[in-house]
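Q: Structure for this?
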Amino acid sequence: MSELSWVAVDARTGLIVEDLPGLVVGSVRQTIGRYESATASLPLPTAPGEWLSATRPGAVCMVLLSQAVDGLGNHVGESVPVWGGMVTRRPRTEADTVEMSLSTLEAYFDRRYVGDETFVGVGQNAIVSALVGKYAADGVRPGIPIRVQMSGAGTVRDRTYLDRDDKTLYSVLTELMGVDGGPEWSVGWEWQHNPERLTPVLYVGARIGRAVTAGLAPAATFDIPGPVTTVVVDEDYSAGKGANDVMAVSSATGDVRPQSPRQVTSDTSRPTFELRFTPSTSITQVATLTGHALSALALVADGARTVALSAAEAYAPKLGTDWVIGDDIGFAIGGLSSPEPRRVSSDDLFVDTFTDRFGSSGTVTVAPAPVDLVPAFPGGMSGVARAIGFEMTLGGVAMITPILADVSEGGF
Amino acid sequence: MATPGNLGSQVPPGEDAAVRKMADLQRELRELGPSVAASFASTVAALRAQQSLLATQQDLLTTQQGLLATQQAALAANSASIADVEALQTRVAVAHDSTSGFGLPTSPTEILRSTIAVPAGFTRALVMTTTTLTLYTPAVGGTYSFKVAGDIQGTTAPYSTGNTLDPGQVAVTSPYARILTGISGTIFTRCVAFALVGTAGSGLSSANLATTVTFMR
């Protein structure tokens, strides 16, 4: 079991400003490589005295803590920060609640601009680390107390950024992630002590999260029937989500517009769906555009396919403990009914005794067809997929919904 | 910018899809501005270079135009000088005609005529004539009187009078000068004479008409 609670932390230092047990947040989301937003409401009758400073827009982050408890309700271990978002807006009315808009710290990256920077033969993770360190972290200019955790320097890249291009850190990191083999990144939170602080961590790497070890089961599995109560498999081949002919283009320089060669899939079961997109305006190298096109084709060739499995947070594998964003997650949806014969109708008998018109008696045995436990998934669906994000619904019974993609399983 | 190659793009659109789309579009627009400006930079640079070249050429043309104006003024001055010189230019023509053996009538009669062509471009002329009439009276019979005058372009000079001896001869000369203006083509001079009393001359009469013309512009 676990308890969820909110605390307000100073955006510049990570110091705890206030505990906010009364904070009401409907749901929070986190996704690799992009920001998410949420809305919050703080009832003022039960709010702490310093609620104004604890909800100051742009200065405070709300962090959701998950505290494990034993059967007696005792806290076990240290709480785990599972989500955090900066207060971006605080409209106040005559009502006795104060409403807030929250955005994950990836949104802060979209509020900082990258200046003149040149990286030649530098690892992509190192590029991300350098940019975040210079343009988001607290330093010469006030920033956030973010730490970068990366797995090595990463694939070597050449990148040039110009102040006059008006590109935000978010835009630059998004472009870098979009290239073939580009670095994945996501902002999490961690405790720091002496003094007690909650500070953001940027996880960056060719892959963030843990891949399942071959031959072993994943660290976390979501099942239905089981803890999972709802499942949504979304197959999306709409514009921008599905295409089998992809070209990445840049903005023109003079009368020349750099563009990648067409990247096409070998699967011809669908008519041609073309996708042309501009990963960034400043790309002049065709090789870079080709990398973007390849990366996009890999994701859109069969359309966006995600699996969302919602389970009660109390009974599901624990976010932040059993699994984190980017991990390989096991899942099992439906399947066939148990092999024991069972009667599904009055006429469907397994063994029937009859007497024919000649007076002879006999028996006939009928093998019943197995029944799908979740009819929308004939035969069931199971496998391992990456948790590219999650949603946690906090009203009433807390629900956790990992968003799985890159599905590799049988029966899909 | 569009990010179909990012894992995040796989996530089904949520409630904030419209807001996120708008933010993405705003970001794209913001980044397109400098990008588009940069894409035209080389063209603008080329245009600026051409503009600079044109400005240099314009300066050169202005200088040359000034030089041409100076030269034009100099030419005009020279032309005026030439006109002045031309105005000072003159040309001289002479003519001489003579006749003899004529009788003199008693009324003014043209005895001789010289025609002189007017050179092109000349409109004025100073014409000087000297007319000499000689009569001889071989027999006694009294004096013989006559008048003679030069004529320029139809205007006759005052007559000079001559009286012959008995016998004998007399020559009377009548000079005449005149300035003609607005002339073209030809001009003429004449010797005009007539008898007053006495016997008209015989074939021993003679007349000379000498003309000197100074043509002017």
